[in-house]
Amino acid sequence: MSRLDLSTASAARRFMDTKVAQRQVNKVLHSFPSPRFWRATQHTPLDVRTLSATGAVQAAPSCELYVALPFCLTTEPSQCGYCLFPTEEYRRADQLDVYLDYLAREGELYRDRWRALQPVSIFIGGGTPNLLKVEQYPRLLGLIHDLLPNLRAGTPITLEGIPQLFSRDKLAVMREHGVTRISMGAQQLNLELSLLSGRKQKPQHVVQAVAWAQELGLGCNVDLIFGWPQQTLAHLERDIRDLMATGVEHITHYELNVGGVTDFALHRRHELPSPELTREMYHLARELLLAGGYGQLTPYDFQKGDGTDFVYEECRRSFDAHDVWGWGYAAISDFPDHWRAQGGHTFMNARTLTGYYAALDAGTLPVEVGFAREAADMRLSSLFRNLQSLHVDRASYRANFGRDVLDEFPGIWQAAQDLGFVTVDDHAIHLTPEGAYRVPLLQTALMQGRVEELTEAHIAHLKGAPPTAVNAATP
Ligand code: SF4
After folding, report:
1. How many other CB atoms are there within 10 angstroms of residue 393's CB atom?
2. Over the stretch 67-88, which tens digit does the pLDDT of each residue have?
3. Is 72 near ligand 1, meaning CB less than 6 Å away?
4. Under CATH, which number does the domain 45-304 receive?
5. Ligand 1 touching residue 128 (CB < 6 A)
């Protein structure tokens, strides 16, 4: 099969020109490759992060922990009309108690690996973690602190949720038990647009939750989505201005990812803003936020002040190895090994609650699929996360991978310069404002060759060919 060759600037430019007028099909990718290439595996993080004879864990120099809660309120249309994450329908509070029991059982299997762990940040995501009742937060936070006895005081712990489920009592108990920050998926403040998702959320819920967080000394992020069905520039400007008026310190403003068998993909495509209007929305929001005193940290994250203390779970400012431990339903773990000249491994836990519970009932870790990264995959995965920081540090790339990132993709960087997406100096590749918007396109070009190889291997696997090096997570 012939492959696209993007090694020259003219070929890369032709490739990008065919895509530049399209909607940015996928939200920016945070690692490589996509889970569609991952396979069932018998291996687990315990095979990758082993204990030495002295009881030390052979791990990357830094790490973070992701804790997942699977449940969401039901909506009509389902999954808020657009969401592609695996979730489970919430019906009763005792579902959460049962889930916490199983989360504890999974954590117990990691106890010796996590004893000395000092994550730089912890993110409790989902699903909708603020479905928990007031009395369930001490248990959840207690599990974390019990398994991480060496957690540094003040480690950022973020808990995600939807606006109408943040009560003052919940926020107070979260704060008391170590949560430092909340992240609220508002998506739209405009009531009419918000109702398209089937959520029963009002703008006052967002304003009130931000005020309570401020009163209690909790950090606060609010997510907004642009490129939403029926959305206009006027809607977007109103939402950004109203949100800034709350004084919230952090705003994440990202593009709607339309796909799968969601209501928006099946029934509202014709209501989506055009690609050109969506691009205008990105730049208008960015200008409003910068004028409002927010600094830009990633293509989609804006924070008051310099944001140097912000640890974003999917953004890196260097290529140094960093582990991610995933805990819970559908949680993803990520273990780079490039500091010892190998690729790395990534795993995803069971994406059904029955699968998650069944594995733990059998006394095993609930890993469902995994992928053994080759060195080229590891470089791409690290590069994708570093693109989040708006700069690619050439010296750090060289120190970690023994080559200049400019030499690795010369045609693509040259075409990106010609299109005004990046500027290059001796130290770094810098994304321009347009380049920040075009990160998904840059990623598509950067991964094109490797995706073609993986696709061929995947098809061969489906046809029953013997496994190759790209097939499964094999420590
Ligand atoms: S609440 Fe969030 S995680 Fe749950 S379905 Fe809606 S968008 Fe997805």
Report:
1. 19
2. 999 999 999 999 999 999 999 9
3. yes
4. 3.20.20.70
5. yes
- Determine the distance separating the centroid of ligand 1 and the alpha carbon of 12, expressed in angstroms: 36
| Ligand 1 site-directed mutation target among 128, 228, 256, most atoms within 8 Å of CB | 128
For ligand 1, is residue 256 a contact (CB within 6 Å)?
no
Vertex 357 angle, CA 85 and 333, to 5°: 50
| CB of 197 sitting under 6 A from ligand 1 | no
Q: Is 336 in the pocket of ligand 1 (CB under 6 A)?
A: no
Q: Is the CB of 441 under 6 A from ligand 1?
A: no
183 forms beta bridges with: 160, 221
CA of 250 to the centre of ligand 1 (A): 20
- Quick check: 75 and 300 in contact, CB under 8 A? no
pLDDT value of position 466: 59
Same fold: 9-28+388-462 with 45-304 = no
- How far, in Å, is the centroid of ligand 1 from the Cα of 86? 9
Q: Which two tokens stand for residue 110?
A: 């990691």
- The CATH number that domain 9-28+388-462 falls under is 1.10.10
Residue 394, SS3 per DSSP: helix
Per domain, the residue ranges of the chain are 9-28+388-462, 45-304
What pLDDT does 462 receive?
Answer: 82
| DSSP tally for the chain: helices H, then strands E | 18, 18
ipTM for the assembly: 0.99
Q: What is the pLDDT of residues 86-140, one digit of tens each?
A: 999 999 989 999 999 999 999 999 999 999 999 999 999 999 999 999 999 999 9
Which residue's alpha carbon is nearest to atom 2 within ligand 1?
A: 127
What parts of the chain have a pLDDT lower than 70? 1-2, 24-28, 306-316, 339-340, 465-475
